[in-house]
Amino acid sequence: MMQKFLKFTPLWRDKKKKGSRAFTLVETLAAVSIFTVSILSVLVVLAQGIANINYTKTKITVSYLAQEGIEYIRNMRDTYVLYTEVTGNDWGKFKTKLNPCNPSNECGADNSLFPSDVFECVTHLNQCKLYVNDGDYNTNSIGVDSGFVRKIWITTIPGNPDEVKISSKVEWTQGSGNYRIIFSENLFNWVE
């Protein structure tokens, strides 16, 4: 028995036997690596979500701008057809006004004039760019460049002189991609 008490046992070995155990360096590095990968995964998902929200916000704005282009032309049609005492024009003059605007020669609309006036993008100083001024979009360089370009054109319908197809295209660059959206609508000479 005496021999048992005199036997030398190192302290570190004695603690292991009793169940007291510390993390090793490898275990700590593995835990930190797993934690880092999980945090990075969450950050990537959040960044992608923010990018998707910005793209969606831009796409909604662009949709409204494309529809607004069609509305300008519809307003012009109504003014030419209904208010002949103001414009001295009719449906034929409306179509003539838009004749230069075709898929190979796109136009813009200046909404500051009554009725809205159209101009060819290639001859316009800013090539149909849209600018933002107090939340309003314009084509006459007042405000900050919005990054959007709106172009409008007309397509005649063969065999039907009382119908035209109006198309409105908005283009923009976001991130590393170029995007565009095109809205189209047929307009009719509804007054005889």
What does this structure look like?
The protein has helices at residues 2-6, 11-18, 25-82, 84-87, 91-98, and strands at residues 107-110, 117-120, 129-133, 136-138, 144-156, 163-174, 177-188. With 192 residues, it is α+β, with helices and mostly antiparallel strands. The strands form two sheets. A five-stranded antiparallel sheet has the order 4-3-5-6-7, with helices on one face. Strands 1-2 form a two-stranded antiparallel ribbon. It is elongated, with a radius of gyration of 34 Å. The relative contact order is 0.12. The mean pLDDT is 84.
Helix-strand blueprint:
Blueprint: H1 2-6, H2 11-18, H3 25-82, H4 84-87, H5 91-98, E1 107-110, E2 117-120, E3 129-133, E4 136-138, E5 144-156, E6 163-174, E7 177-188
Antiparallel strand pairs: 1-2, 3-4, 3-5, 5-6, 6-7
Shape, per Cα inertia axes: elongated
How are the strands of the largest sheet arranged?
Answer: 4-3-5-6-7
Low-confidence stretches: none
The helix fraction, in percent, is 40-55%
Q: Average pLDDT, to the nearest integer? A: 84
Question: What's the N-to-C terminus distance?
Answer: 124 Å
Q: What summary fits the major beta sheet?
A: 5 strands, antiparallel
Report the count of strand segments.
7
Q: What proportion strand?
A: 25-35%
What is the H/E order? HHHHHEEEEEEE
What oligomerization state is this entry in?
Answer: single chain
Structural class: alpha+beta
Radius of gyration from CA coordinates: 34 Å
Tally of alpha and pi helices: 5
